[in-house]
Amino acid sequence: MASAVRAKSASAAVGVADDESSGGGSGSNGSVAEQGVSSSQAEAESLAALRSLIRKRREKYVTDRWNDPLLLITEKLEQIELCQSTSEEHLATTAGTARREPSQEDLVYALRELVRNIKPDDHSLLLIVKHIEQISDILASDGQEQASLSCLRDLIKTIRKEWPRDEKQVHLLLMKIQSLQICFGERLRDERCPLSLQTKRHVERIQAMMFERQPWRIRERMKTASVALVLCLNIGVDPPDVVKIQPCSRLECWIDPSSVSPPKAMELIGSNLQMQYERWQPRARYKKCHDPTVEDVKKLCTSLRRNAKGERILFHYNGHGVPKPTANGEIWVFNKTFTQYIPLSIFELITWMSAPSIYVYDCSNAGIIINSFQPYAEQHEHELEKALAAALQRGGVQQLVCGSGGAANVTGNQVQLPNQMVSYKNCIHLAACAANEILPMNAQLPADLFTSCLTTPINIALKWYAMQEKLGMVPRIQSELIDKIPGKVNDRRTMMGELNWIFTAITDTIAWNTLPRELFQRLFRQDLLVASLFRNFLLAERILRSHDCTPVSLPALPPCYRHPMWKAWDLVVDLALQQLPEILDHNAPYRQLPFFEHQLTAFQVWLDSESESRTPPEQLPIVLQVLLSQVHRLRALELLARFLDLGPWAVNLALGVGIFPYVLKLLQSSTRELRPVLVFIWAKILAVDPSCQVDLVKEYKYFLSVLQDTSVSKEHRTLSAFVLSSIVHNFLLGQTSALQGPLLSICLEQLNDGSWLLRQWLAICLGMLWQNFEKARWSGARDLAHEKLYVLLRDSIPEVRAAAVFALGTFISSVTDRSEEQANNIDRIIAITMLETVGEDMSPLVRMELAAALQWMVLLFESQFVAVYLAEHMRGHASAASFVMCGDPRDLTSSTHSLERHVTIRRGASSSSISNMGGVSTTSGAGSSGNSLGRSKSGSGSSGGRGAAGAAGGTNSIPFQSIFTKLWLGICNLAQDPFPRVAAIAQEIVDHVRDTALCPIMAAKEATMATATEKCSSLSVSLPPSPNTRVNYLGGGGGPGTGAAGESPPVAATASGASHWAQKLRLSGSGGGVAGGDPQTILQRKLRTSSINDETDSGPAYSRGAGLGLPSGPTESTHSARSSGSESNQYLEPGHSLTPIVLTEFIPWAISYFTRPGKERYSSAEGAAEEGRQRHPVDRNSAELRRRRVRFLRNDFVRRHARRQHQEQSDRFGYDVCVWNRKTQFTPSIVKLLPYEPQIAVAYREKVLVYDFQYNSVRTYGAEALGGANATSSSSGYGSGSGSSSSLNGSTPRKSGAPPGGGGGGGSSAAPFARVSSIEFINAQDMALNLVAHEDGVVRVWQSSPPASSATTEDSPSKARLVTAWTALGQVNQHSYRQRSVASGGSIGKGADSSGLSMGGSGTGSIVTAWQQCSQHLVIGGGGCRFIRIWDLERELKLADIPLGRSETCARVLAPYLPNMRSDVILAGCDDGSVQLFDKRCSPQDARISVYRRHSAPILHASLRASETMLVSGCTEGRISVADLRASQFPSSVSDVVHEWDAGADVTAIASHQIADTVACGNASKIAIYSLDGRVQKVLRTNEGFIGPKIGHPTWLSFHPYKVQLAVGFVDNMVAIYSPTPGRDRCQK
After folding, report:
1. How far apart are CA 774 and CA 63, in angstroms?
2. CB of 1001 within 8 A of CB of 994?
3. Beta strand pairing status for 1537-1542 and 1519-1524?
4. pLDDT tens digits, residue range 891-912?
5. Which residues pair with 505 in a beta bridge?
6. Which residues pair with 1430 in a beta bridge?
7. DSSP-derived secondary structure for 431-492
8. Within 13 A of 653's CA, how many CA atoms are on the CB side?
9. Which residue has the higher pLDDT, 541 or 246?
């Protein structure tokens, strides 16, 4: 290259010198004559080359900031100009200065030295050097001052024009360079290179998040309606079995009985006790009974139960004036004269009280009462169960209310259970002490210490704390001061109120951390009075145990008196009592206690710990109490939100502790600071428990205001959209309320928001709003909501596109009354638009939702689809007319004569107007077939006879059946989708239409065969043709080779199942409102409603769910019930909703986004660069991140080791040692080494095998890797007619051909994959995914399981997971693929087929790919396509189709990219011998930069050198060319070819190393290793070495991206790897 450039530069320089000297000398003519060119031509050529080189050097200087010698040269030239331009008149005046300045001779000499020191390999500066040498020669000669000055000024002017000195111009030039500069190759670090296909939709199954939902709602809230206060004090008389000490405790309800007369004292004590209870339950009905008799107690209990009905009754018993309960559990009362103690059995008391009830026993030996009750209750429950079982055997109990304690209720003639047979499960007992214990008699404490703890906990707690001398924390606090504590219990601003508030929080915390969840719910959340009593019972346990007394309860509680939270309570009491003297003596203001602030800090510390094995935080109940404080409310809510963000388990805990009523009440707050956090909390709650929608209906405006407020962050507006979606989700009241508000208009206004998650949930919200709600649908239609959703069908995020499809699908299904033509027209437009826009979407998620959305068209227009199905099968049959019982039989075939008759819908101002539409030509889009689908017939030919006569609007009428034909074709294409789940969903729809169509036909056929006396001509029923299979005669799709005559099923098979179709028909008739009767009559009715030109588009005549032998419900049970995961709407009547054929899990999966922990959700960055990306927050401490760093270090080692190999290897071209080889089952078509893993990928036929050297294992990626899933996705149920052009019966052209094992392809067998055409490695720097492109245009991405050392053969592959699959090159290449498939016969041989392999698998029509990790772009071409297509795998979107320019050429080779290499160019080698260079940043029409036409035969190899602009290309004729891409930017005088040589005409494979200077060429006899200058360095004879004698020629050559390794695939089923060093470099790991 250096010689070529020097020659061109010298020529140009001489031309310029001659031209410059022509103005002042006489030697110009001779120079021009010697060169043979005109001076003007030489001047133009030289000037253009000079400017181009200066410009490029300037760009490199600006971008790279390198010290360009041209700067020094320019400086010297300017100095010479300044020196030469000085006039002689000024020389005298500047003599002193001139002597100090360098002379012209000095400057010329310095310039010469500078030019000589320029490196000779700086080719781009040679032209400038030649100019300067010529100018310096002129300056050195005499008498040429004027000429040299002119020439000097011209040169400086040229340099300055291309290299401006002004900094502003420099900045503008830098911006221009940055926007236009092409990056041929720039390697990024592994950390900066993004990973592809790592989003949730790729790494997990699309389904609802599985978690255990804990019941938190109180099934039936109970209320203590009545309270019985029974006081047996007998003041003045002590019981005989208790000897009281002196002094002894005397206070009863804080009253000393001896201070007043006994009757007065009894009255005061009873009143005080009632007042103490009223603090906790003021609305209860209280009845007092002082020193009662047995009859008094019975009367009291029965009257209270009669009035309370099923509510709870409290029975409080004070037995301080009677003996202790007996061993039989009897308590004591009095006789009427108070002369005797009368025992009252606890069993009688329970019978009077019934259930539910609660008992409080404040007496000595109280525990013996509970001990007597327990065995009785257990025996009673056992007898109740036996009675219930007997009653159910005799007829059953229709309604039994025993769980709440009520009597068993029966109706009608059911068995009546006795009233006493009630359940005592809800009976609660609280006893002051255990059996054989007496109450404490401390004079400093009240006598009813247990009652005081239960009813006045704060007073007794403070008094007891002041008594504890061992604490010594509060000196000089007297009991009288405690009685004077200011404030009320319910006023939290006072000392008494705050102490009670804190006490409630602490006791709740102790109970929540100690009790089982179910027991906590029952005791502390079901009844307010019971909750208060049990909180106070915990205090009673602590105080009484300090006096050797053990309170007992039923249900029993675990010991709580030593819980650590009691220390926090002691601290609170101490801090409060410290303030008491100042408050009482000096009226000082009360200072709030720091308890809640400290507990929030403890909760925050727990949240910050981030330990995976941590226990639930004990402060959670306290956080709920803090929500009542306005001071700490915001902080508490923020911490609570962080806790809920830990996952569903945290939400369950928060709901279980009782968060729900608190946050529900806060929705009534108008504080703006609380709105974001409240929205977040409610989103987490609804994501775990959607049933909360009922409670939020009245508060929907709160979330609507957040959604409408654009000042709120997009994250919280997204949460509001999700909450509103949950409110309206299959909830008619919520839908009605939201529709009355501006929810519809707000969602439509923000559909184009920058946040993709907000766009997704706005679309889902719209879909849920009008789901089964026709009023909302028509409101949306008036606002053109469906048209605004069309924009989201082209969104860059697949989840948004899927949400838009879901919304449009529910828009279609919301109207079941199809009598209005406007609804039908809108729905047809929507369906066609969806099919054309996302029918070939890359994301399986979107295609899955598309199939689910199109099912509503099938259900709503079932008769039209049945007609399309029947017309397809009857097309060309002689007996077609016999299928039509009414009308012209030509109507069935005229409009759907072939699949080429497709129309698109042309919209006017509004696509809702059907009159603006007509049958026009369509482009090949979603659902287009391999035939020329871009052309359609005229409208008259498509509409059919009756439609042309009866359609309103004349010539503007829509050929409706062409729409249904196109929709049906789209559904059938989806049924053959390469992704199994999509194909399974679409196949269910196809099967539904098939069964619906064939049910009356087969029933009529059976009836005809059963009545043999009738002639077959009375009802000519012919079955559709089918391939030669045993099971496909019912629905098989015949190809052209099946003949015109229809085939009937075998007689034996029909006879054995004679009642099968008749049963289906009867079921369909009963389910769909069709009267049962003669099958022929039903068939006529069916075909009458299925007329092709039915302009009314009436609904289906058959049941959509229960009929046709189909399941009554969907085929897959999920949490949802509509097309995309919704539950059935209980507010709709059964006849008004459709039963879906299939279900998807998209909506439950989308909801699970908010259920996940925060670290598993996408980052919520709101910058413009982050909004459109789906990135997870980085967990710096995760094990996965550490493993990834280890892999990055391994990658760096591999690159450094390979670089050292290239530099230090003595024989860089010595690929003469085979370090690994393996025999394959068939001829390998592609072999490729992974860049960092010790693995090699080998492709043959339809599968790819990845061999692992380290684990000695192999993984297989093919049809068998899918297992049973592939059978679901690939089998159409109709057979695969080989060579069929296109079909509407569910089969697809690309699945034609015989299976690999030979034999016919039955309907139940899985169709084989097409032959592998290309392999790429995605995320090679981390965990590589295998991208496999097949010849039918399908691309599949596989993820392998961890390597298993036991899998050592191809027959025992390890598991592989299909990450994604799509048709990257659609129907445009199907024709050429079918031709190749038929020609090859589905096998790879060594004869004719080996020639295709000899070209490296890149023969005519083969798919070629190039993967670039940095931009996550997949470039794909070939397959007969006249363009190359770019896919964005991150967004799963097609970016562009770049035309190749010439209509007859297609891409055969795409230059590969090194891993982590950023590049803006695409290099495509074509079959016409050209190599085209594209800039993918430009528009498709302007993307082509240049075309290299150095070859006359199809290109076999084309590659760019890493980080260089050198192109290595080779063609099938063996011509190898090495060119410099930069030279193509210059005039044709600069040659672009550096080296070129001929490797022989029999070359079968070519490969070049992108880093090493190595090119490998293989033919039938050898593999030659060349250097880049064309010299042969090494020859590998294929009949020598370890491989064996006379093996076949290579079919594929591939260098390792970095190492000095060459992988070779041979035609004799052998794969080998060659390396120059046998030891150290042997398959580096």
Report:
1. 62
2. no
3. antiparallel
4. 433 333 333 333 333 333 333 3
5. none
6. 1419, 1440
7. ESS-TT------TTS-TTHHHHHHH-HHHHHHHHHHH-TTT--STT--HHHHHT--S-TT-T
8. 21
9. 541
The Cα–Cα gap between 990 and 992 comes to 5
Which residue shows structure tokens 């101490």?
A: 574
Burial group, residue 1190, by CB count within 10 angstroms (0-12, 13-18, 19+): exposed
For residue 314, which of 221, 428, 423, 228 has the smallest C-alpha distance? Answer: 228
The Cα–Cα gap between 208 and 213 comes to: 13
Q: Are the C-beta atoms of 350 and 316 separated by less than 8 Å?
A: no
Question: Please, what is the angle between helix 633-644 and helix 675-688, to 10°?
Answer: 30
Q: Of 729-743, 830-844, 1327-1341, 1505-1519, where does mean pLDDT reach its minimum?
A: 1505-1519
Which of 353-367, 625-639, 1106-1120, 1340-1354 shows the lowest mean pLDDT across its residues? 1106-1120
Please say whether the beta carbons of 923 and 943 come within 8 A.
no
Query: Vertex 1575, ends 1571 and 1580: CA angle to 5°?
Result: 80
Closest of 898, 911, 1041, 890 to residue 969, by C-alpha: 898
Question: What's the CA gap between 136 and 129, in Å, rounded?
Answer: 10
Q: Which residue has the higher pLDDT, 90 or 1556?
A: 1556
* C-alpha atoms less than 13 angstroms from C-alpha of 1513 in its C-beta half-sphere: 35
- Give the distance, in angstroms, between the CA of residue 1616 and the centroid of all CA atoms in the same chain: 41
* Helices 2-21 & 126-140 angle (0-180, nearest 10): 40
Cβ neighbours of residue 818 under 8 Å, at least 6 residues apart?
824, 860, 861, 1097, 1098, 1099
**Interior CA angle at 1384 toward 1383 and 1386, to 5°?**
125
CB 1241 within 8 A of CB 1248: yes
242, 324 Cβ separation under 8 angstroms: yes
What tens digit of pLDDT does each residue of 531-566 get? 999 999 999 999 999 999 999 999 999 999 999 999
d(C-alpha 892, C-alpha 884), whole Å = 8
DSSP 255: B
Give the residue from 1533, 1534, 1605 showing the smallest Cα distance to 1569. 1605
Identify residue 994 by its one-letter amino acid code. R
The gap from C-alpha 709 to its chain's centroid, in whole angstroms, comes to 27
List Cα–Cα distances, 1462 to 183, 1409, 1415, 1439, in angstroms: 7, 16, 7, 17
* C-beta of residue 1573 within 8 angstroms of C-beta of residue 1539: yes
What string of DSSP letters covers 82-125? Answer: HHHTS-TTTTTTTHHHHHHSPPHHHHHHHHHHHHHTS-TT-GGG
Specify the residue for token string 């039923």: 554
What 3 state SS string does 156-204 have?
HHHHHHHCCCCHHHHHHHHHHHHHHCCCCCEECCCCCCCCCCCCHHHHC
Question: For the chain, what percent of residues have pLDDT higher than 90?
Answer: 38
Number of continuous H segments (helices) and E segments (strands) in the chain: 53, 38
Whole-prediction pTM value?
A: 0.75
Whole-angstrom distance, CA of residue 1276 vs CA of residue 1291: 6
- DSSP H helical segments within 1225-1287, as ranges? 1263-1266, 1268-1274
Please give the radius of gyration of the chain, using alpha carbons only, rounded to the nearest integer: 45
Is residue 1053 within 8 Å of 1070, Cβ to Cβ? no
Q: Note if the bond before 555 is cis, omega within 30 degrees.
A: yes
Structure tokens at 1476: 């085209």
CA 481 to chain centre: 65
Q: Are strands 186-187 and 1614-1619 parallel, antiparallel or unpaired?
A: unpaired
Sequence-ordered list of residues with C-beta below 8 angstroms from that of 556, at least 6 positions apart, any chain: none
Residues in the chain: 1629
